[in-house]
Amino acid sequence: MDRYNRRRAGGYVFDMRFAFDPDDFDLDRDFPLGDGTADVEGEVVCPYCGEAMAVGLDPGSGPRQDYVEDCQVCCQPWRVHVEYDADGHATVTATAADD
Ligand SMILES: [Zn+2]
Questions:
Q1: CA dist 77 to 21, 49, 80, 83, 94, Å?
Q2: In the predicted model, is pLDDT for residue 23 greater than 70?
Q3: For 49-94, how does the pLDDT look when each residue is reduced to its tens digit (9 = 90+)?
Q4: Which of 66, 74, 62 is nearest to 94 (CA)?
Q5: pLDDT at 33 > cutoff 60
Q6: Distance (Å, rounded) from C-alpha 7 to C-alpha 75?
Q7: Mean pLDDT across the stretch 18-27?
Q8: How far, in Å, from the CA of 78 to the mean position of ligand 1?
Q9: What pLDDT is stored for residue 61 in this prediction?
Q10: Hey, how many other C-beta atoms are within 10 angstroms of the C-beta on 65?
Q11: Helices (H) then strands (E): counts for the chain
C-alpha cells in the first residue's frame, strides 16, 4: 500500500527533483543541452515595477525551472518560471513571489 501511494505521488516528486538533481536524468535524450542551442538568456517583465529586462538562465538545471530572484531594478522578489521547448527556446515568466 505504501509503495502504491508513493508511485501515485511520483509525478510531483519527479518535477521537484528535476530542478535540483539533474544528474539523475538523461537530459541529452529529451532536451538539446549538448548542442549549444538552449537559450542562456530570457526576457521578463517585472510584476512590480513593469521594467522589461534580460535574465540569465541555466539550461543545465533542466527544461522546467522555478526559483526566486530579485528584480534588478526595484529589488522585489520574483518567482521565476522557465520552460524550455524541444528546440531549446526558453519561455520565462516572472510573477510576484509574495502572492
Ligand atoms: Zn522591478
A1: 24, 11, 9, 19, 9
A2: no
A3: 999 999 999 999 999 999 999 999 999 999 999 999 988 999 999 9
A4: 66
A5: no
A6: 40
A7: 53
A8: 9
A9: 93
A10: 19
A11: 3, 5
Is the pTM higher than 0.70?
no
5: which 3 cell numbers? 501511494
| pLDDT at position 98 | 74
Q: Ligand 1 mean position to 21 CA, how many Å? A: 30
Q: List the domain boundaries for the chain.
A: 4-96
**How many whole angstroms from 71 Cα to the centroid of ligand 1?**
5
* Grid cell in block for residue 58: 541555466
- Beta partners for residue 80, in sequence order: 67, 94
How many CB atoms within 10 Å of residue 33?
17
Distance 32 CA to ligand 1 centre (A): 31
CA of residue 58 relative to chain centroid, distance = 9
User: 45: CA distance to ligand 1 center in Å?
Assistant: 8
